[in-house]
Design a protein that fits this description.
The chain is mainly α. It has eight helices and four strands, in the order ααββααββαααα. It is globular, with a radius of gyration of 17 Å. The two termini are 30 Å apart.
Length: 208
């Protein structure tokens, strides 16, 4: 799932727990992805390109069920008993796990049970069908905004970012050569996308 729709999940969490600030919720739903970015920078995880398609071939530390649950539990303990922010603790943990659940729907079979075993691995492969992926992701983002009772500006942001993601969803073949030549470009692009979506969702999710 692309950045804007993971970010939209934070709107559901905010609706459920109005006392929780929106920015920490945005961080929670993208925490796994930020780990993936820095693990790619460090060479711990990597992607590959073959047969004109991009594959997230090795991401067991950031994107596994075990890792997500462990990070969620640790975050709950820290926020609940050290930071002492009870309203945020549970929804932050749920936000972390939500990322893996949504990615299982979209990814190829690259979401492992744990970093210690390559099997079983899950992924429904919606990403292999770009138009279906675009429609489902856009519908999900719109639903999150509707559930949150967000403004027209927030809805516009979600729709625009989904439309901007469509060329990326459709990209293949020679268009991916740039990532072969400059492998750090992909994690950098994703990191920038995450930060930009945080900015706009924070800005337009404020209640007047």
């Amino acid at each position: 799932m692309y950045a804007i729709n993971h970010a939209a999940t934070a709107l559901i969490l905010k609706k459920k727990q109005p006392a929780a600030p929106i920015l920490p919720l945005l961080i929670s739903v993208q925490f796994v992805e930020v780990l993936w970015v820095f693990f790619n920078y460090a060479g711990i995880e990597h992607f590959t390109i073959s047969e004109g398609k991009l594959h997230l071939s090795y991401l067991p530390y950031s994107h596994s069920l075990f890792s997500a649950v462990l990070i969620a539990v640790l975050s709950y303990i820290v926020i609940r008993w050290i930071v002492k922010n009870k309203p945020l603790a549970l929804v932050f943990a749920i936000g972390i796990v939500s990322h893996i659940i949504l990615d299982i729907l979209c990814h190829e079979k690259d979401i492992q049970l744990s970093p210690f075993s390559s099997k079983p691995a899950w992924g429904f492969g919606i990403i292999d069908h770009p138009i279906i992926n675009f429609v489902l992701e856009t519908a999900y983002g719109i639903f999150c905004c509707w559930y949150f009772k967000g403004s027209k500006s927030l809805l516009t942001v979600i729709i625009i970012f989904n439309v901007l993601d469509l060329p990326v969803m459709l990209a293949g073949g020679k268009a991916l050569t740039v990532f072969v030549n400059y492998p750090m470009l992909l994690p950098t692009f994703i990191l920038v996308q995450i930060i930009v979506t945080w900015y706009f969702v924070v800005k337009y999710s404020k209640r007047k």
